[in-house]
Write the structure tokens for this entry.
Amino acid sequence: HKKVEKICCIGAGYVGGPTCAVIAAKNPHIQVTIVDLNADRIAAWNSDKLPIYEPGLDEVVRSCRGRNLFFSTDVDKAIIEADLIFVSVNTPTKTKGQGAGYAADLGYVESATRHIAKVAQGDKIVVEKSTVPCRTAQSMRFILEANARPGIHFDILSNPEFLAEGTAIADLTNPDRVLIGSLNTPAGRSAAASLADVYAGWVDRQQIITMNLWSSELSKLAANALLAQRISSINALSAICEATGADVDEVSYACGLDQRIGKRFLKASVGFGGSCFQKDILNLVYLSESLHLPEVAAYWRQVVEMNEYQKKRFLNRIISCLFNTLTGKKIAILGFAFKKDTGDTRESAAITLCKYLRQERANVSIYDPEVEERQIWMDLAEPGVQDERKELEKQFTIAPSALEACKGADAVVVCTEWDEFRNSKLDYKKVYAEMNKPAFIFDGRLILDQKELEEIGFHVEMIGRPRSNFQTPKDWE
Ligand code: NAD
Ligand code: UDX
């Protein structure tokens, strides 16, 4: 099989950037060019302040940028030169038309594919890196073959990415597995072997697994659905814990010790966020419905519904603890990213919560160590509403520190599990001293030490633990 010498990656986002930077760092003999239509994004990749925050990414990029790693807006040139092309563009949920709200919008994949067909002057291996519905490779092949110059051959591979944000570099450096799907033909197998060689630059051969294209495509949706399903399962149990006096962390610990269940992805929370889980499950729901499997669709849809329920339940608890009204009260939101160690806010539970708080006419002060202010204002705005910023500013402020956000607040709400919000890192005595009383704290991430905070004087409400019974003084019982 052919040795890959030049790689092009279309899409310089959260996946394309880190993945191809690691490929370049581990394969100094391969030239890797990451291209994007978004010139600002490419400029940021070429600057000292990369467009995404990801621990360890700066070092990897710095080690090979300008050597065998390049970021460019010249898509044509990179395609023409490459032997292998990753398509790593966004595949968001469709907002209009057939399948709106469920199906993946494959417009970006299609336009990248057409671009390849239009400019390619020789044979290429085209790799689906984006998460796509089952059988997308077939559509790509149709488009490529219908538009290519005569005599040019394309092999299509599926190579889904399993990295999680916040740990992308560690996940890429040390993956549980690398998955490559190909047609079971000599050409397909040979293309898969070429891609396997790239990963073998640092991944153990036994962890590089190959299978048929459709299994590979579906495995990505399946893995995300199974992971999200665990979170919705533990969150469903957290509601039972709150009503019974059980503690969800203890239940999770007890269950997780069973090796058949395992410990990870059983942390109850205010709800999962991120650009993948909801999108990919809805995609699976749509696929199931298109295949006339309504029971299967309903089963997976419930994972997303449980997640919405969890966010709403958390809001209801805040309202009811704060004497059934939030109007004019100050709520401090600690953390806006969808998880710690990322500046990404896509589908973050904090956004949903802030939108609910807006309806309740609360005053909200938001602090996050990595999310940019501009991004927070964009996330708070309702799509299509003009000049909303002034309206938003009547209710929302963005604070420069956690302490500042909590000043004068009636309640502190932990939405993201950033380490700096832990008891050991944040001076909660000071937070308490500067809050309105009674001072409430709601932990949507189960990272706080409830007892210690209660000793300071806080009323503490934790997901998956029963409500504090402060409202019924002993002599009233
Ligand atoms: P992203 O939005 O951060 O990046 C996609 C980039 O592609 C954008 O910068 C966009 O400008 C560019 N683009 C779109 N069409 C283009 C075209 N025709 N030519 C050149 N550039 C084009 O998205 P992402 O988070 O990197 O996700 C990419 C894919 O990877 C999605 O399918 C996603 O589901 C999947 N994925 C994401 C993650 C994650 O953690 N974010 C993990 C695994 C898989
Ligand atoms: C996920 C998958 O983990 C990854 O394999 C895939 O490639 C992309 O989608 P990501 O969304 O980046 O990665 O982060 P992840 O760590 O999975 O967290 C997703 C959401 O679930 C976050 O909001 C996180 O806080 C939440 N979560 C995670 C929980 O609420 N509880 C848990 O136990 C784990």
Residues 161-165, 224, 227, 231, 265-267, 269, 272-274, 276-277, 338-339 surround uridine-5'-diphosphate-xylopyranose (ligand 2) (CB under 6 Å).
